[in-house]
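FAQ
Q: What does a multi-component entry look like?
A: The components come first, one per line:
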Amino acid sequence: MNEIAKVRLFDFRTAFDHPVTLWVTVAIAAALVVAPIIILALSRSGRINGELRKELFRRYLSWLVMVPLMLGPVLLGAFWTIAGIGLLSLFCYREYARATGLFREKLLSLVLMLGIVAVTLATLDHWYRLFVALTPLMVAVIAATGLLADRPNGYIQRVGLAVLAFLLFGTSMGHLGYFANDTNYRPYLILLVLAVEANDIFAYCCGKLFGRRKLAPNTSPKKTIAGSVGAVILTTLLVVGIGWFLFPAVTVTAHGINRWQQLRYLAMLGLIISVVGQFGDLMLSAIKRDLGLKDMGKLIPGHGGLLDRFDSLILVAPAAFHFANYIAGVGLNQPVKILTGA
Amino acid sequence: MNSWTMQPANDLELAESARWTSLNRESGLVSTLLHGATWGMIKSYLGLYHRLRIEGIENIPEKPPFVLVSNHTSHLDALVLGAVMPGQLRDRVFPIAAGDVFFCSAWRSAFAAKLLNALPMWRKRCGAHALQELRRRLLDEPCAYILFPEGCRSRNGRTQPFKNGIGMLVASADVPVVPCHIDGAFESLPPGRWAPVPRSITLRIGAPLRFDSVENDRLGWEQIAGTLRSAIEQIGEANTECQVRI
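Then the predicted structure of the entire assembly, as tokens:
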């Protein structure tokens, strides 16, 4: 294995080489320290009641577990990042399968899980051609596997559910992992996840403050147009703000992009993250409504299932990846086919 | 066009540890693989260590619902009956196990649920409610149960009176009940012993009985329990020569 690849995959000593990684890590740690104090202060001053305080603390404790689980692998190295995202995809699939009933199709489940593992291995290998090929090939494999039971009744339904599952948890989540093949994957991924989570919070806050007209009352009764628009504006500002420091002038001009163009591209990225993220959120709401469920699972106290937390990220990952790949390229100066040989 | 037929898992709302003891538990891919591996090992163990012989394997219905009942003298009984089930039914066959023994701690529940696919029956507070739930699942899903109508292991090897629970499960329903007799399990691993001795075990499977015309009331339940008990004793007394090895 090449020395450059080894450093990217396993060397945690480079974790804070990029200043944005350091700042954001410090900021998140600070937020986790300050949050309980704010909750307590609000509760003392009587602004929130005991019920809400308990709920907020439950969510806070979940974040206290989730943040190290998400940030830890990214800081440790690209190998842990990709492996962690692969594991997350498998658990997301499990939740989806149990909610839709697809889990009763054992053979399809097995094929899907192997497909997700294959995507993870292609990502680790930095073998983009295989990574791209897996999507259409898996559609064929799923369509063929669905035939094996010789049970045409319900064929479209189970194959349709399985293909959607692979597109969401294999292909789309896989793009999140593929970011880790770039030299600067740490700040990229941190910016992406931070922007997506902030997008949710911005929409919630703007909706609480200004929201009157409903966005899609049948799909998700609590979302408002004001919340949605507010989130678009604030998320775009956040992405432009962090992105300005993320890509210093030297690297930007190396790609033949001037600072004004960079500003425009960052605004576009922020817009993509916010709009696509909100559609991801609505997609999961629609899936839950269709199935008659409140939450997808019970895994994260105060949040629901894994998918209730990561719904927006699933659709954002490929959109942000291909935008970045189109503008500047992802992982261009990293060795390819690390494991299988060039 | 068919409407939406796929349903969320029946135990979707439950936390992982609560699923283990739930009567609504449904297996996913990982559980299925674990069940297959466990029962494969149990099968080879019974074949090699106890030289398990089976008579009347053709009496096991091809499709659920059905209930397998037998005399109960040893922990090996459930393993013997579970081992003769066809592999493709593995996820739909549930040994009914005593909750106070097999589901009394998280470790035991995980073992019974994840490896054996057992469902709990709480003997002390086993109300009609739990039996109704089992009956509903048996008919609706449909699935198959392995159970011992005596309610606990015989301490002397002889068959004890049957409890009415089996009647409450199948009375006036079109469910075949397969009476079985196990010979040699008591000598191999009687209650109180920890390690089994390598004695040979014989399983005789009788013709299925149906109780769809029996009233679903106390009299009917007693009649079913009595009928099954004499059927099992009869199979045991026949003492025919067994040829089929597992």
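Q: Is there any commentary attached?
A: Sometimes. For this entry: Residues 160 and 260 of chain A are 44 Å apart (CA to CA).
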